[in-house]
Amino acid sequence: MEERPMATFTKTSNNEDTEKKESIRCLTTLSHFGFECLPYQLVTKSMEQGFSFNILCVGETGIGKSTLINTLFNTNLKDSRSSHFYPNVGLRIQTSDLQESNVQLKLTVVKTVGYGDQINKEGSYQPIIDYIDAQFEAYLQEELKIKRSFKYQDSRIHVCLYFISPTGHSLKSLDLLTMKSIDRKVNIIPLIAKADTVSKNDLQKFKSKIMSELISSGIQIYHFPTDDETVAQINSSMNAILPFAVVGSTDEVKVGKRVVRGRHYPWGVLQVENENHCDFVKLRDMLLRTNMEDLKEQTHIHHYECYRYRKLRKMGFTDVGPDNQPISFQEIYEAKRLQFYEQCHREEEELKKRFMQQVKDRETAFKDAEKELQDKFEHLKRIQQEEIMKLEEERRQLEEEIIEFCKTKAACETLQTQPCTNIKKDKDRKK
Ligand SMILES: Nc1nc2c(ncn2[C@@H]2O[C@H](COP(=O)(O)OP(=O)(O)O)[C@@H](O)[C@H]2O)c(=O)[nH]1
Ligand SMILES: [Mg+2]
């Protein structure tokens, strides 16, 4: 009878794992099973679902972000011209459905608005960080939901195209600050914008200067992967020419008999798709043709994983308990719940105690105030009584004075009437 390869499941501990792996037998299949078609199944599934890609463009106003995106996808995403007078940095989000052959791509382009226009550029990178984190948070929340949506639209940023001004000198401090604050959250591909404004010699020096500045500032940019041998060579050669010097234009220009996309100057035509003129094609190939899946994978397994790890740790979740033994989600949840109840109980007791103390304090305060009022009342009452007595005394004295006065008055009147009667008697006698 034919020997058929069988899949067996053996539970192994971590230490045993390597030994067991080494002892797994590799069998040559003697008949056709059909699992060689697995990749085709995946392709069909992916084609049905369609693909999505989210790009973040960071760069000063007017540096050529919209033009480059339109050139990359050979379309017009209808972006209005930005003003230089925004008080803060903002983000503009545009989503479009694109189709090439029978492959559907949902493209989301997020561009900075007003970046580098403020006098105080201190917090210019904050809205960018907030946006990147908000997309990670939305994904995490979806992942933690009981009823998850399988049609969830992943909005995490897969790549950040960082537009560097073609100064020919060095990076600006804003460039370093921004890249430093987002390099652990997103895959950064640095671009020298409007590279047609820098001469070939200056461009080489500028590229080296930028790379040495990035290295000395400890900024991690995205490096095209070199572990897959089918793309290792092209990717390592592309890593060597970073940052890409790009030129964007959707204008069609006639060169000989051909019509190409380019920029027309008095001295000639710059063809954006000519690799001798700029790195536009290299960027497009690296971004869309060769490394789109790796950019998405890095976003998921590296940047999102870091965010998820930090967030869950902050919430108190961990993989091992205090005794360094693996701990399940359920156990952590139970422990957290117990901890929460105990904390609630403690806080409730504390609140009760504080409330009772407050009531006591208030009661004492009321009693003191009452006593104070009583004392005040007694004092006032005493003063009033003294006042009454004083007034009584004064009244008595006045009455005595009145009586005295009346007596004196009566005596006076008597004295006044007596001489008159005597005179009258004298007159009568004379008659
Ligand atoms: N010389 C040159 N000009 C460019 C390039 N890309 C865009 N521009 C011009 O720069 C201006 C601003 O471009 P735009 O894409 O709107 O900049 P955004 O504000 O960053 O989106 C437009 O007049 C473009 O024609 C380029 O690569 N080279
Ligand atoms: Mg724009």
UniProtKB/TrEMBL annotation:
Q: Which Pfam families match?
A: Septin
Alphabetically sorted, this entry's keywords are: Coiled coil, Cytoplasm, Cytoskeleton, GTP-binding, Nucleotide-binding
How is the subunit organization of this protein annotated in UniProt?
Septins polymerize into heterooligomeric protein complexes that form filaments.
What is known about what this protein does? Filament-forming cytoskeletal GTPase.
Domain Septin-type G, chain residue ranges per copy:
49-314
UniProt lists the gene as: SEPTIN14
Q: Which domain of life is it from?
A: Eukaryota
By what name is this protein known? Answer: Septin
The compartments listed are: Cytoplasm, Cytoskeleton
Q: Name one GO molecular function term.
A: GTP binding
Please tell me whether the keyword Hydrolase is annotated for this protein.
no
Q: What's the chief localization of this chain?
A: cytoplasm
Enumerate the CDD domains for this protein.
Answer: CDC_Septin (cd01850)
Q: Which residues form a coiled coil?
A: 366-408
> In which organism is this protein found?
Chinchilla lanigera
Among the entry's GO cellular component annotations, what is one? acrosomal vesicle
For the biological process aspect of GO, one term held by this record is:
spermatid development
Tell me its family: Belongs to the TRAFAC class TrmE-Era-EngA-EngB-Septin-like GTPase superfamily. Septin GTPase family.
